[in-house]
Design brief:
five-stranded mixed β-barrel; about 35% strand; alpha+beta; about 400 residues; six-stranded mixed sheet
Length: about 400
């Protein structure tokens, strides 16, 4: 899918992981200043790669990658390295090292580490809420599963409502799959804390283990759907299990989390639904295309980046992605993490909490023609029109 805006040059970021989820990427310092540092790891499709770090100040301090405690990184400006011919110009043959394809990157950014482990690191289309507190995500796999329904009767309307209810059900939650593993980890840590207390001759006063499930705040499904009127006009709507209301006591806007049936009922009161209903009742068939996605809360560290970006006019770094993703669907890389109680194991939550840390997946730049010096525009995170893709 092409972005809304075209660019002369696109720079992509990729996810590189160790051989196992808890095994660090293999990093090696260059033997001398004239050579590049090397990182060896695996792409999402399982391809083993060697990545050299290009000169510059991008990314984390490479020395932090040497201890094997960084499990997954995002490699910015990822591109293949080609052999050079007799004329010293690059050929179309990619270089290899010990039979492994060689790439280069402008810098590496930690997405999962021993200190801050991620349950998963994924790529997705992302849309940030105005506050940066929530991120809507739709993966390529979800986009590939888009569905179509032609509405021409009340029966079809009822069928759409049933489809929405199913799409918004708990079975579509994207983080509940981690509950079992997180429960086992919690149990191990709590048993260890109890054993340590008893070994010190103390009475254990920390949290007790009980299997927990995901909080209703995290990983909830939503549905993005688009439709065309008979005249060709395109509409879109997002049906979510989140809704905002003003608290009568504090007069503050608070977010409520609904069950699927409540969300569909709320949708039936929306202008978008009434428009659909009016079209069908007027005898004008409506073609509806829809796809399911999920909503996650963002991490504390990302929300701080969001605040910093909002308060700065920076044209580089995290602000580039944040500025684009707040306005339109933008490709992002996300680390999904479990957020433990800050006093764990002394205290524990009554449900699992999961958050996402987001960063750019690509940026685009174009030549500044008027300069005449080969200058480039500041980087922009490309945006995508998912409604156009759904209705294509």
């Amino acid at each position: 899918m092409k972005p809304i805006q075209s660019f002369d040059f696109m720079v992509n970021s990729v996810i590189i992981s160790g051989e196992k989820p808890t095994k660090g990427v293999d990093a090696e310092l260059a033997p001398n200043p004239n050579q590049m540092n090397r990182l060896t790891g695996f792409l999402q499709d399982g391809t083993k790669v060697v990545v050299s770090q290009r000169p510059g100040k991008g990314g984390m301090d490479f020395n932090k990658l040497l201890g094997g405690k960084v499990f997954t990184v995002a490699a910015d400006g990822f591109s293949p390295v080609y052999e050079k011919g007799d004329d010293k110009k690059p050929t179309k043959t990619q270089k290899t090292e010990k039979g492994i394809p060689l790439y280069s990157s402008s810098g590496f950014y930690s997405m999962s580490s021993k200190e801050y482990p991620a349950l998963a690191v994924i790529s997705a289309y992302t849309l940030l809420s105005e506050s940066g507190e929530f991120v809507y995500i739709i993966t390529d796999q979800q986009m590939a599963a888009k569905q179509n329904l032609v509405l021409s009767s009340e029966f079809d309307i009822d069928l759409l409502l049933l489809e929405l209810t199913e799409k918004l059900g708990d079975a579509q939650n994207c983080v509940s799959q981690y509950d079992e593993a997180v429960n086992k980890r919690r149990q191990r840590l709590l048993v260890r804390a109890r054993d340590d207390a008893e070994a010190e001759g103390e009475q254990y006063s920390g949290a007790s283990f009980a299997p927990l499930a995901v909080s209703r705040k995290d990983g909830n499904p939503f549905v993005l759907f688009c439709w065309k009127e008979a005249g060709g006009l395109t509409h879109q709507a997002k049906v979510s299990r989140m809704t905002s209301k003003v608290d009568n006591t504090s007069e503050r806007t608070v977010v409520e989390f609904l069950v699927a049936a409540e969300a569909v009922l709320l949708f039936q009161q929306s202008p978008e639904y009434l428009d659909l209903l009016n079209q069908v009742e007027a005898g004008l068939p409506v073609s509806v295309n829809y796809v399911g996605g999920n909503v996650l809360r963002t991490s504390v560290s990302f929300r701080q980046k969001f605040t910093n970006a909002a308060n700065s006019g920076s044209a580089y770094g995290d602000a580039v992605y944040i500025r684009a993703a707040t306005k339109q669907w933008t490709k992002g890389i996300l680390a999904i993490m479990q957020s433990s109680h800050p006093s764990f194991p002394a205290q524990d939550y009554n449900a699992h909490h999961y958050v996402a840390m987001c960063r750019q997946a690509e940026v685009g730049m174009s030549k500044v023609v008027s300069s005449g010096k080969g200058a480039w525009t500041s980087p922009v995170a490309p945006s995508y029109d998912l409604a156009a893709l759904l209705t294509a």
